[in-house]
Amino acid sequence: MTLKPLRIAGVEVGFPAVLASLAGYSDLAHRLVCRSLGAPYAGTEAMLAHMLLTDNKLRRRLVRMDEADHPVAGQLMGAEPEVMARAAAVLDEMGFDVVDLNFACPVKKVLGRGRGGALMLKPQLALDIVRAVVRAVPGRPVTVKLRRAYGDGGRGEEPFWKIARGAFDAGAAAVCVHARTVEQKYRGRADWDFLARVKAAFPERTVIGSGDALRAADVLEMIRRTGVDGVSVARGAIGNPWIFDQARTLAAGGEARQPGLAEQRALIERHFELTNAICGARFAVKKMRRFSIHYAGLHPQPARARAVFIAVRTLDDWRAALEMLYGRGKREAIGE
Description:
2 domains, 44% helix, TIM Barrel
């Protein structure tokens, strides 16, 4: 399958399968792991705009960057145009390649503060934010993450079309469209027919699709069926960062390879090492317990592996779990 390289304004991405911004998962360690397996572009976890305007010490805890993590989008969340614009300027100064605006998050506490997907109900405010941010970072591409609608009732898809058209008119370089409503969250099937309609409406613009890209074959099928310029892989990359390499292999006409136990162990240990170096061993154990529950899906005995990882509480538990589940394959020191 011949794929057109993805480009976001002046940012050359290349292979059109990218790592999505996903709260609780898209930290620097996970981004670097996915990049090592073929992800050409990634977004940070959503950062609250007002938090980026605090002192440098807090900002350093919020924002983790690495030379190997480019091109990268810094994702912002907020509901005040001026604050979002000032935060975007901070990301610009820090060297992020793209500023991404999250108008899609379906988390209840986010919606309750008028952020994320709540802006699907306030298209004029959403566009005021886009215009303010575009003006604040004239040298950086600005992208917008949207959902198909807030819900299926009321105005339905009307706010989406108003925001998408207005964002492009205001200078946005791309829109990323999750093909579910805010109210759906991650339930039910994503509406890929909607993605096809969006791309047909904006044939000369960059449209990235999101929703149900859970396997490498889904990435290629979404592009084939909808015509989107790229696919944002979220849950499909949690526990299977190999999805990017697999998609590249499938696109080249090969057969997607499943990693063996030794390779799985080596990558999980590498993920731990990165998290440990960034956050410290205590936090790394907690964070990697969550990731490893997803890595368990690739184990020959996924239910057993999941139960073992769920029980992990300490660094010794972590080491014992790896030994029990993955044997004495290629070992690399962790937590040292």
